[in-house]
Amino acid sequence: MNASAAPAPGHDFSGPAPGQDWRRFAQVHWAREPVVVPGVRPLGLGPADAHALVRSAIAAAAPRQVRLATADGWLRDPGPLLPGPGERDPAGYAARLAREPRLAGDGWLLTISDPLGHDFALWSRVRDVLADLWRHVGQAPLPVTAELAVGDRHHSAEDASARTDAAALTWVLDGELTVRVRPEHTGTEYVLRARAGDMVHWPAGGSHLDHRPGRCTTLRLRVPARTTSALPLVADVLADLMRDRPGHPDGQLTLPHPMPAAPDGRLGAPPRLAASVALLTDTLAGPDPERALLMRWAALRSAAGLDPAPPRRPAVRLTPRHRLRRVAEIVRLPREGGDTVWAANGHAWTARPAGADAVLARLRTAPRAVTVAELARTARTSADDPELLSLLVESYRARAVEAAPERSERRS
Known about the structure:
This protein is an alpha+beta fold. About 30% of the residues lie in helices and about 25% in strands. Helix 1 crosses helix 4 and helix 5 packs across helix 7 (about 290-300).
């Protein structure tokens, strides 16, 4: 058994510069072995931020994204056991559950899947941390998912034989965490002990069990690392395309029961199933899958893989005198024989104006905010060109640019 002990009390949480941390981490540990990286706090996310994120996620998330486990297993309907609007800090919530008769003093674990999509500022912080890592290990090509977990005296009861196709990066935001990791194809077990400010990593293919001796908050990112991990993403893209094609059945697909059989008792493929196969084949034969995957990749590239991204913000009606300033990276991907794709902050859109490249160059290099009229002149088009305005509005909605009326306009 390999043991990674917790750092001594009072160790420096600041550590070296994030770029240096990732460089050494990439060279020595990434995708090689389970490890605790002490003294790293790159997220800028503390327990209070995490608790606020838990509350906002519970208010907005789908029920399946919020789970509460006790010593007896996952609760089907945790209801009032979830944090309420009046509980402003994690200590108060933990104290309430400690007095909860239904828990009988046992431990508990609250997990929120995909919590960062409810807070753009926190999502951006985590995205920027991932972008720093990718500079040293390469860009993750598939969605990186997040899970926020708050627990107290809880030991995970997951199947230790279950293997995952994703590498894990777990930041301990508060308290202490012990993880028992068993990499695949080896009998070695690692016991990783981490405290607030530490990050725990293990490669894809291993199984793990978490133990929280007291109150502990973690943010875990899962980075897909196997070729087969691309299948769900591709399947989702194809399913969306098939729904938009003529011949896709509306409503629930049902088949007769009992199934019709030939006189000799043999069963054939149901016609509805055969029609679905034909629809899939027809969809794959067209150009749409490649275009949809390119759009998805552009969006992921602009998000450093962190998915899902926060929703677009509402549109604004731009006038020629509105001043625009770029505030985020805009990814540009050319598409052979088609429109160029722009992406920012996890969202992608097409750039149709002939002068789109000139507009992007101006936004990237302008030392100050530029007006819509100036960008129109750069693109050699009019300030009321619908395609130019659509391009700029999409850039605004994706939070790639900020927009403000001209100063004289705001005074009126």
